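User: Okay, second chain of the day. Same drill as before: sequence in, C-alpha cells out.
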Amino acid sequence: MNIYQRLIEVKKAVPYLQKDKYIQIGQGGYKAISHDKVSSGVRDALNDQGIVPIPTVIGHTEEKLGNVFKASVVVEVTFVNAENPDEKVVCQMPGSALDKGDKAYGKAVSIATKYVYLKVLQIETGVNDEERVEPEQNLDKAKPEMVAVWRKRLSNVGIDEARFLKRVNVNLNAAYESLDDVSLAHQLRTEGFVQLLEARVSEEKKSTSE
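Assistant: Same drill. C-alpha cells below.
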C-alpha cells in the first residue's frame, strides 16, 4: 500500500477519541483533548500501518507579556512510509501557548502536533471546537466595575482608550454598552488576558513616550 492508503487505514482504526481534559476558566470552561491522549490513541494504528511521524519545529517566536511567557510555533509533521521512505505526507500547523515559567514553548509544540494528528486523520473528539465556550447563561456578566477598572488603568497611563483597543484587537465597545458580551466576560476572567492587557498597556505607554 502507498502512504495515502495506509493513512486511510489509520483513519478507519481511530475514528474517535474522547476529550479527557476540562479547562477551567473562572466559573466556566470547556472540554479539551490532551496531546498525550491523541498520541497514545494513534500510536498503535500508525505502527500497524508502518507509518513513522517525524515532527519538526520550522519556526518559533517567544515573548514576555507581563508575568507570563508566550510562545508561538509552526510544527511540520512528516508521515513517512517505513517500507518506502520516499513516500511522505507533510502537514504544517501553528500553535501558541502561555506559561508563567519555561513551559510555553513545549506546550505550543504539543498543541500544534496534536492538531496535525487530529486534522490529517480527521479524528472526531465529540464537542466541536467552535462550540467549546460555555453558553452565555453559564458565564459571569462583565460587571460595570470591571469595565471601570480597565478604563481607569488606561486613563492612569495616559492612553487613549479607542486607540488602545484598536491596536490590541480587543473589541469591547459593544460590551461597554450592554455589559453582557460573552467574549468579554470570558476574557476578563482569564489570568492570561489580564497579564496580556497590562503588558500591552506598558508597551503602548512606552511607544507614546518615544
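Residues 132-142, 168-193 have pLDDT under 50 and may be disordered.

User: Thanks, on to the next one.
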